[in-house]
Amino acid sequence: MTRRIAMVALLFASAVASAAPVCHQAPSPPALDTIRAVMATGRFIAYQPSQIKFHNGVATQADETGIEADLKVLRPFFDGLVTYSSTNGAEKVADVAAKLGFRAVIPGVWSFDDPREVQNALAAARRQPRIVVGLSIGNERIFAKERSIEAITSRIRALRSQAQGLALTTTEPFHIFIPPDARPLLGEMDFMLANVHPVFQPWFGGAKDADAAQFVVNVLGDLARGYCGPILVKETGEPTAPANLGFSPQRQAGFFAELRHRLPASRERAFAYFSAFDAPWRVTDSHPGVTTPQPQEGSWGLWDENRRPKAAARELAPLAAR
């Protein structure tokens, strides 16, 4: 298994070794230093309010009471949040997070062509300038073939005048950032949010926790050879069910324990835990290339849908104790 992981690293490294790493040329926004500080000394987690569910394409709404109940569970262990959208109540996450003492929130803008969602995210930054430190413009839109690299690059560039002081980026699976045609996008990003999922690799079924964690470390090293800004893995983890596919709470906890050991957090490289809470409705949610129910998609949380901790959450040391 280790040999296979090493081969993956070499393949990606060969794609980026022929060119110098891409750096964003504009001065770094002040908020980028906060992101680096939380990467190095705190913990990020990928979070969507547990009240938001989609049924037949229609979303339920989150309110501040529900968001506060979520974030009170997370706050002892996390001080950074990365969200997915700024609609359906998620635009209030930063307000609640500020009250509870979070250090950084990176709101997602899922439908970045929707002026209302963009304004919701910018308004949150104006209300909470201390902790809203960046924006993620789109989530796997290139991977889903819904937008081109050029379109995402242009959208980030166009938002800079409205989002002064904020660190801007987008979220994609790691392989999207590797090819040469991604270099203009890398040059526009203040930092990178990459999704790195060992569970989707063909070798994962027989992998040990150490193999899966080392894959994430290797991919980060490869990305850093092509990009010189901070890299935060937005999504990596393992679901806890179903058991017949080899998933379990113990395996999730083992993966994160190995990743903490093999990837010490720093100002330049760190990972966010994925994700905060189970979302059973996602089993039948549509996503790129998938048309049939995916039983594992509802159980990525470190806490279940009732906010009860799983093994991975119970093994986390509270931040105050660090």
Please, could you describe this protein's structure?
By secondary structure, the chain is of the alpha/beta class. The chain has a single domain, classed as TIM Barrel (Alpha-Beta Barrel). Helices cover 34% and strands 12% of the residues. It has ten helices and eleven strands. It has a six-stranded parallel beta sheet, with helices on both faces. Strands 1-4-5 form a three-stranded parallel beta sheet, sandwiched between helices. Strands 2-3 form a two-stranded antiparallel sheet. Strand 6, helix 5 (115-127) and strand 7 form a beta-alpha-beta unit.
- Classify the beta-strand content into a percent band: 5-15%
Low-confidence sequence ranges:
1-17
CATH topology: TIM Barrel
Q: How many helices in DSSP terms?
A: 10
CATH superfamily: Glycosidases
Q: What is the count of distinct domains? A: 1
Any idea what the shape is? globular
| Number of distinct beta strands | 11
Overall helicity? 25-40%
| Termini separation | 33 Å
Biggest sheet statistics: 6 strands, parallel
Element-level helix/strand string: HHEEEHEHEEHEHEHEHEHEH
Supply Rg. 18 Å
The CATH level-2 architecture is identified as Alpha-Beta Barrel
CATH hierarchy, class = Alpha Beta
Give average pLDDT, whole number. 92
Strand order of the largest sheet: 6-7-8-9-10-11
